[in-house]
Amino acid sequence: MFRFTIEKKSEHYKARIGRITVHGREVATPLFMPVGTYAAVKTVSPAELEELGAEIILSNAYHLYLRPGDEVVKALGGIHKFTGWERGFLTDSGGFQIFSLASLRQITSEGIAFSSHIDGSKHFLTPEDIIRIESNIGADIIMPLDICTQIPTEHEEAGEAVKITVEWAVRSKRVWDLLGGESALFGIVQGNVYRDLREKCAHQITEVDFPGYAIGGLSVGEEKGQMYEILDFTTDHLPAERPRYLMGVGNTGDILEAVLRGVDMFDCVLPTRNARNGTVFIPGGKLLLRNSEHRDDCDPIQKNCSCYTCRNFSRAYLRHLFKTREILGYRLATIHNLHYLLQFVFMLRQAIQCERIETFKEDLEGGRL
User: Fold this and answer.
1) Which of 8, 20, 104, 233 sits a CA distance of 20 to 30 A from 353?
2) Is residue 215 located within the same domain as residue 324?
3) Looking at the structure, do residues 312 and 164 belong to the same domain, yes or no?
4) Residue 121 has pLDDT above 90, yes or no
5) 153 and 190 assigned to the same domain
6) Same domain, 257 and 318
7) How many domains are contained in the chain?
């Protein structure tokens, strides 16, 4: 049902090119997953995502459990039929979202009690419940319930979170096995910024033996250098033959640095959220479409960009759409941003294949990518 094959390893870095096969669907890594929290990537259709080259969409089990309900999704044939997206789906457990509810939730070793942010209704979910919910949804890759701690957090509290995360991982794997393991269940490594906790969590999680491993609790406030150091250290303690997924990271510089440290998978709301705010990605930085300087600018967002938006529309027109709050503006900006990131990882794979990582890194730092 799930296979990961490494096709090329860099001669000088931990970077590698791989291929994930799950439910007959093949996906090249390193890869970037657009986020469709509610089983839809905001403003764009499945057909547009396919044209952009997206291979996997990330959705959120917590949100789909609340609306429309995982049983509804199951009754309608699973998430692929429900959405019309026939390529890959990964569902996050929603642990981070529940954790962020703060005053609306209470964590115990048994599970998480929380009040719905929608209607205030009371819920209690165990790790076993989450696996059953995700199995109903029918994604190709699923994530267990875990505890992500804030940065900074004291060592003792972070250690307790690791303990519960590992316990929940064991329980999640047990029910996943009982349900037949049709979706690939990844383990999650937590530990905040503490090397001893990261190492402990990595060793205990890998002993459970998951098809793949995620690195959670990063890009949540720590310094860049600290994040890269933790990544470098953590990947050394994860099996080389399994895919590694850095959760919630979508900045091009961070993606490159993580790939150099052996990471294969990424997701982030950054391209879609920025697009809805009128911010689009270009080599060397960002462009603010609402700015007055674009009022009569006939150039596309990015010269030589092959996306639908840049082939057909000017910055002036896009600025007009945002100033008048036309939905088309959000759509066109999203198409460009997703194209930009998906092309970035495509070119990164080529750079690894041809041993041109140093040149690729220089082009990114020099504003040419």
Assistant:
1) 233
2) no
3) no
4) yes
5) yes
6) no
7) 2
Average pLDDT, the chain: 96
Q: Are residues 138 and 245 in the same domain?
A: yes
CATH of the domain at 121: 3.20.20.105
Indicate whether 222 pLDDT > 70.
yes
Q: Rounded mean pLDDT of 51-74?
A: 97
- Site of tokens 């794997």: 173
Instruction: Indicate which residues carry an active-site annotation.
Output: 92, 267
